[in-house]
Structure formats: structure tokens, C-alpha cells
Amino acid sequence: MRQLLILFSAVILLALPAQAGPVQDILQDHSALITKSSRKTIQPAIDALANSNLPQAQIVLQTWQGKDMWLRIEDGLFFRGNTLPSKAIQLIDFDSGEAAGEADKKALKQLKPNSGVRALIGTALVQFQLIDPDPARRAEALAAIERAPDASTLLPLRASIEGETDLGLKARKIRTERLQTISFDPDEAARIAALDAIKGDLGVDVRAALNPVLTTKRMVFAGDPPADMNIARRLKPGADELTDKQAYDLIVAANLGAPRLTPDALRTAMVNNAADGMVGGVPVAELNTQAARERAYAGLVTAGVVAAAVTDAEAAKAVRAHRFVDVYDEPSQAVTDAASATLDAIETKVALNQALDLGLDALSLGSIYFLAAIGLAITFGVMGVINMAHGEFIMMGAYTGYVVQQIIPNYTVSIIVAIPMAFVVTFAAGVAMERLVIRWLYSRPLETLLATFGISIALQQIAKNIFGTQARPLTSPGWLDGAWVLNDVVSISYIRIAIFVLALIFLGFFLFLMKKTRLGLETRAVTQNPRMAASMGINPDRVNMLTFGLGSGIAGIAGVAIGLYAKVTSELGADYIVQSFMTVVVGGVGNIWGTLLGAGMIGGLQKGIEWLNPSNTLAAQTYMIIFIIVFIQFRPRGIIALKGRAAGD
Amino acid sequence: MKNSFLMRNPSILIFLGLLALFTLAVTLMSEATGAGLISTSFVKTLGKTLCLCLIAIAMDLVWGYTGILSLGHFAFFGLGGYMIGMWLMYERTRQIVETSLANAEIPPTAQEVVDAIGSQIFGVVGSSDFPAVWAFADSLTMQLVLVVAVPGVLALVFGWLAFRSRVTGVYLSILTQAMTLALALYLFQNDSGLRGNNGLSGLQNLPGADAIPQSVVSIWFFWASALALGLSYILAAFIVSGKFGSVIRGIRDDEARVRFLGYSVEGYKLFIFVITAMISGIAGALYYPQAGIINPAEIAPIASIYLAVWVAIGGRGRLYGAVIGAAVVSLVSTWFTGGQVPDLPLGGYTLKWVDWWQVLLGLSFVLVTLFAPKGIGGLIDLLDGIRSPNRHGAALGPDSGSLQEREARE
């Protein structure tokens, strides 16, 4: 029996070469290259497999890349190998996919392609992945190409578009194919066609593909530049883009002229040639002016120690004699023209979208200021009380939100609870402050400022003592994470949209309260004339108390909103107080529309200035404040000024 | 003699006498010239306190007497400090650079020295060129002029713009606060030319005075601060005692009425605003060499609000009140925040004054504004038997806390 078995396996082993399938044939054809496994020579073997149109080719390449391909030494055949628990290798035939017996490790040679070869195999595999029946695999392969564009993937990608069934993937493939065409296709017409086709695409990757096409090199020529050069533009030395000094430096860099004598070089020449306390006939002690050093250098030139320096006149003449051009690295002018036309079109569109994005940013910043200032508009605008502790009410609201979140772990529920809680807490604080301090100071506005400032620093310090100096997180619910992305340029985070909506709700609430309710009527009456209001049966004390409480309560809610996107610290409110006052003052006191306009203007202005000088938000704030100071000159009572009796004086 | 300047302002002689006594006492107790009872750092603290008293006088002039609650005077104070700091830093760096370049093979040119100073000073903000604002940094005279000129010009421009458009009351306060914030934010930038948030440092070292110990230098500055305080007190008393003083108090109490009487209210206000800005600049120029470092955080709006609080606690509308307020609050503040006050055990909780001092201070502002609008200076009225006239509820002026000694005498 055993003999029979041995015989049988011997027959199988002997029979295998005869049965070898097409894959094995290809492998055998390139056996020498495959076993040599060098990045420089391996390409024909990979190509033969990849272009064989055999269904097994992909498996072979994957096996090879995964270092699972084994060579049976005795007959030189290639197999896929599985290491068995017994350390022996189970061989699997590539063509049939069936097991072809086991073998000891010693009888086999594992093929271990190096990383260069593996990369080449990977590239060859892309074409299989791009037409993989599984859309997820196709998307994965496409994403890999998008991440690392490479000349070799262009053709497989192009070939795979035709058979693509998934419409979304097809669109992506077409787009990627165009970008790759621009970057790698040797055919000029195809590149220009692709350049035309992507006009108006806002993607960052499009600009990333276009920019290398348009890179230039600054060059200098003694005469006219060669005609076959793709010249971006000719430069005229002396203007800002190319100063005379830079022009001469270019000449020196191109070895077309001798370097000029810089102060450093002059100094080095002095140091190197000092002898017996003299340099070029000038005593070393006198070399403390530029003129003396130049005199000494002239002496050295006469002595023949150093070469004569290029004079200003010579340098100027050299600059005039040379031509300076920016030359495209890309040789084809048709391509660069098409690329710059496309880039111009895209940039125009990007600029428009950036303006839109900036507008959204400004709107969101404006709504934050509006939220922070609306409470102040009530206390300062309506009651004429300047409340320096307003910022601390905002902070209190934010900390209330934080504490609520510690108790209720569900973020959505905790925010829903925190908003009314913040209102209640700060309303109570506001009413207490009005009863205890502010009502005694109604006739003394400047002293109100001081007293409320005292409360402000006390509250800040108390918050610091309770919650510590480190920032506390106020986490927004999951559905507020992320951003609403219109395209690669325009996006706005949901939290900012929520703040905008909140600001709108407050505006509506405030208008309703002031125009449609009894309290609003009484507040307006007390604002205009407290004594008259009192004689009409309104209790000014009560109205003032409620109004102040309301303003503080709104500050508390604003605190929750601000805390959601900024860290909660004891200085949170102080950061907003000056801007809030600005908003109210710029907008005009005593008018909610004025506050709205003021917030919009300050938000827009700050974003606008930041856009002009994006690296420097500090400067933006400085210029904004200066602008506001100047603005107050022309409209001392704000954008919307109360007129007549309501103005008070 | 009854109407002579000194007789009308008895506080001048008392104040100057006390200041002289104090200066003498500190000098005798200092390490440099006397018994060494008080440390050099405490002499510096006292000298700095005198500078704060000086700016408090300026604040009292502008707020207590003229009724302009400026929240920007610490900006002028800081500017004065920056101006003198530029010279101190430039000159000291120049000496260091010249010493190191003296050993070079060939003598340096003037340009090389300036370049080396530039890279020393501005290396920290990644630059080496001198910005335009340092144009006069090599000249002590020019920088001393700038100590008063820069705050003066800024106050002139700002004041002219603000007063011209009749911005008054809390609006003006907010506007001055905005100006301070704008200046502080501007200086925080690295390319402002004044080393961004690093500020200017090493100001305690006088150029060319390396051999002189800090204990002596601190006494010099102490004397200079005391002298400046004394002179400014006389100047301020002179300004407020005559007809001019009556007009500015009139502006404080009812601006419209003074305008209808034909006075140029804007001119008076502008004069006071500018002169107090200059005094603040001098105070800053004396303060920061004693502090040793100046950075934009010093100018932040909150410092100016504190200044107003000192004056309020000391007693507005009286010059000695401002001095008392600044001295008491800043010294007590130093005492509390320095951790020298023993903690207060309250059963389960130990009250650490370092943490709770701010709360105490804040609440004391509220209490002073509510119950003692005259501030600490009101105690002197009690001693002196001065009582406010009973106007049956009607205030003396819009600012009922700002009384002047004579006018409020019954």
C-alpha cells in the first residue's frame, strides 16, 4: 500500500510539468528574472503576468507581493505556499488552484521580493483592483491612486473607466483620470483636453495638480533667451519684482559675472590681509568706517593681493546687458497656456467662494457677538446701567452648562437642561445684583461701572477658586459635530449654524417681549420716563429688577452657546466684554436692531481685516478697534440713534 | 497771605512734609545708605508704589476733578515705560556689543555695531533690523522727550477726536478702554517693533553703572520717584486751585452749563487729558526701570480699571485721596498676594488669602462705592469737621462723591 502511495505521488510529481497551465508557463518563461528579483529587471515578468488576461494573474501577483510564492528547487516550478502547523509547506498550484502536495522547507525556496519590486507589483495590481467586482475594493484602489498619484497608474485607470458600473465611482475615476492626465500624460492634446475639462473644479487636488505644471524658474541670459524656451514672462530689472541687486545676484549665480564686494567679504579681506597693523596702506585702527575699508581694499588691489571689486557702474551695466526671464519648467507652451487659463478660471471661482465663506464666518462671528451683547443691550441700552460683570454672567452660564454635564452624562439632554438652568442661575444672580448694588447707583453711572467691576473680579476669582484655572470642556452633542461642507472652499461647522439659529431665536424673543407683552410695554415706559411711568401705576423698581434679570439670564444662555465652541475658563467672559460693549455702542443704545447691525458690522469687519492679513488676528482686532473709535466720531450715538424724547437729552 | 497758593492748599505742605519724612526714613533704613532694615526689593516696591501714587494723581485730575472716567491712563503709563526702556535696552546692549567687538581683528564700523545690537535685541522675535520706532533709541535726551511726547500726542489725538464729537460719560470710558485694548493688542504682535509679548527686559541695569550695586540704584530711583511725586502734587494742586480748577469742576458737575457760560469745554478737557497723560508717561518711565521688565500685558484695560478703583477707594476730588488710595491698595495687595498673610481656617475650609484676596478686593470696591463714596479721604473730612451740605436729597453735582474741601464746607 505504502509503495503504491509513493508510486502515485511520484507519478503526480513527474506528471506536473506536463500538466503546467498558462500561468505556470509565463512564470517559467521569466523564471530567471523572478528568482533574481531585481527592481531594474523585473518589469517584463510583471508585465507578462499583468497583460496575460488570465484570471489567475491577480492571485499570482498578490501571492508574490505577499512573499507567499515558493519555488520548488527540484523542478523549478512556482507555487503558492501555506505554512502548515507541522512547519511543512502546503503547495497550491496557481493554474488549478488545487493543492499540489506538501514539501519540506528545505526542498523549496521562498521568493522574497524587495520593497522596490513589491511596489512595482502593487502598481500592476492596481489595474485588477480597479476592475474588481467588489465596489468597495474599487473605491479603495481609487482612493490609493488619489492619495499618491503616479504615472504608472494612469493607463490602468483610464482603461477601467469604460466598464465602471457604479456612477459615483465612475465620476471620481473620470476626475482622477483627468488630474493624472494633466500631470503624467506625455500626449499634449490629451493634457490640454483634460485641462479644459476641469475648468471650474474647486477641489484642492485640482490646484495641486495644476501648480506643478505652472512652476517657473528665474533665469538670466547674456543675449535673447533661446526661442524654444517656454517663457512665462520677461522681467525688467529695477521694479519691485526684480530689484537691481537681485538681478545682479542672478547674474553672479549664473556665473556670468564676478560677485560684488559685500560688507562681509570686505571685512574678511581686511582680516586676511592685515599685516604689521596695516591693511593696504591703512592702519588697522582706522578701519572703523566703510570708506577707510574701501580705501584699504583699493590699496590691496594695487598691491595685487586681491581682485578688483565690481563697481556699482559695472554692476548696473551688466544688469542692463542681460535679459531676465521666468521660464516654465513645462516645455509645452500650449499646455501652460491652457493650465493658466484653467487656473485663472478656478481662482476666480475660488475667490467668489472664499467671499461666500468669509461672509458665513462673519455671520457666525456676528451672531456670537450678538448673543454676547444682547443681554448688555438690555441692561446698558435700555436701562443705561453699565454692567462690567456682564462677561462674568456669560462665564456663569458656561460653568452652569459644565456642571449640568457632570450630572447628566447624555450630551443632548444635558444641553437641553443646561440652557434653562443657565438662565435661572444668571437671572437670579442678576436680580440679586440689581437689588443689592445697582439700584442704589442709578443716578451715578460711573460708579456703577466701578461697583460692577468689583463684582466682576470677585466672581472671576471665585470661579477660579471653585473650578481651577484649567479650561473645562463643555462638550456639544454628537449631532452638532462636524461641518456643513458645500465644497472644498466653503464650509461651516454645525455648531456655528446652531449659534446663528440661537441668535435669531433671541432676536425674535426679544422683539416679542418688547413689543407684545405687558413687561415690554412697562420697560419701554420706564426707559423713556421713569417718573411718568411711575405715576401711571408702573412700579419702576420691579420693572428694573426684571429687566436686569432678563438681560443677565440671556447672558447666561449665551454663555452655554459660547462654551460649546470655546473652552470654559474663568476669563471666558472677560474676553467678550469689550467686544460686547463695542457692539452696543456702535449699534446704538436702546435699539435691538442697532445691536444686530453693530454685531454684524463688527463681525464682518473683523473677518474682513483678518482676510486682508490672515496671519495676524491681533492686528485685525487692533485695526477694528481703531476703526470703531473713528466710526464713533461720525456717528457718536451709533448706527441707529434714538431721536426725540426717547434719546433722553 | 490768606489767598496765597499754599494757604489755599494746606494739604500741599502736609503732604510734602510727610513725603520728605518718608523718603528720609526709607533712605536711612535701606541697605545702601543706612541700617539695612529694609531689603532692596522692598525699596523697589516702595519706589514703584510712589510711581503708582503719581499716576493716581493724574487719574484724580482727569476723573475726580474733570469727571472724565478714563480707562486708558495705564496705556500712557506703559508707553512712558516703553520709551525709557528702549534707551536702557539699546544703550546696555551697545556697551555689551562694543566690549565683545573690541577684541575683533579689525575695529567695527558704526553700522556693524548697530547690526549687532539689532540682532541681540530682536533675535527673540526672529528679526535683526531696527524698526522705525527705535530711530532715537541711541539718544537719552530724545527718549526722555518721547516719554512725555508720545503719551501726550496720543492723548491729544484721541482726546481731540473724542471730545470734539461730544462723547461723554460711560461712552467715553468704553472708548478709552477700547483704545487701551487696541494698543495692548498691537504691542502683542511680534512685528510691532517692540519685541511682542517678550516686552523689554533687563531694565533694572543702568548702562554704565554695572559697578554700582542694585541697592544704591534702587535708592536713586526711589528719590527720583519721590521728587516726581512731590513736584506733580504741586503742579496738580496749582492746576485745580485757581479759576482753571473751578472751570474743570464745573465741567464735571454740569458740562452743558459751563458750555453755555461761554467756556471752551473741549479745550479744558483736552488740556487736562493731555497733561495727565504726560504725568502718566513720567510715572511709567520711573516705574519700569524699578520693575525691570515691561510687556504689553501691563497695558491691558484691567490695569486702568484698577487705577480708577484706587482713586475711588482713596477718595476722588482730593489729591491726597488719590495718593492714599494708590498707596494703600497696592501695598495691601502686595502683602496679600505675596502670601505673607496667614491663612484663615474656617472649620472645614482653609481660606488661602492668595486665592481669596481678589474676592475681598472686589467686594470692597462695591462697599466703598455704596457706603463711602468719599473713600478713605472721607476720614480726613471727619477729623477736620467738614460735612457735606444737606441738600435734601439733591446731589451736589452728577458725581456726588467728588467733593472738594472748600466748596463742600457747610
Automatic annotation (TrEMBL), chain A:
Gene Ontology process terms (BP): amino acid transport
Keyword Transmembrane: yes
Subcellular location as annotated: Cell membrane
Topology relative to the membrane: Multi-pass membrane protein
Claim: Acetylation is one of the keywords in the record: no
Signal peptide: 1-20
The entry's keywords: Amino-acid transport, Cell membrane, Membrane, Signal, Transmembrane, Transmembrane helix, Transport
Domain of life: Bacteria
GO CC terms, sorted: plasma membrane
An MF annotation (GO) of this entry: transmembrane transporter activity
Sequence intervals crossing the membrane: 368-390, 411-433, 494-514, 545-565, 577-605, 617-634
Main localization category: membrane
Protein family per UniProt: Belongs to the binding-protein-dependent transport system permease family. LivHM subfamily.
The protein's name in its UniProt record: LIV-I protein H
Species in which this protein is naturally found: Thalassovita gelatinovora (Thalassobius gelatinovorus)
From TrEMBL, chain B:
KW Transferase (keyword) present: no
Keywords: Cell membrane, Membrane, Transmembrane, Transmembrane helix
CDD domains for the chain: TM_PBP1_LivM_like
Locations listed in the record: Cell membrane
Gene Ontology molecular-function annotations: branched-chain amino acid transmembrane transporter activity
Gene Ontology CC entries for this record: plasma membrane
Entry keyword Transmembrane helix: yes
InterPro entries, per the entry: ABC_transp_permease, ABC_transptr_urea_perm_UrtC, LivM-like
Protein name: Leucine/isoleucine/valine transporter permease subunit
Residues making up the signal peptide according to the UniProt record: none
Major subcellular site: membrane
Transmembrane segments: 71-90, 140-163, 170-188, 220-240, 267-287, 293-312, 319-336, 356-373
Membrane topology: Multi-pass membrane protein
The organism of origin for this protein: Thalassovita gelatinovora (Thalassobius gelatinovorus)
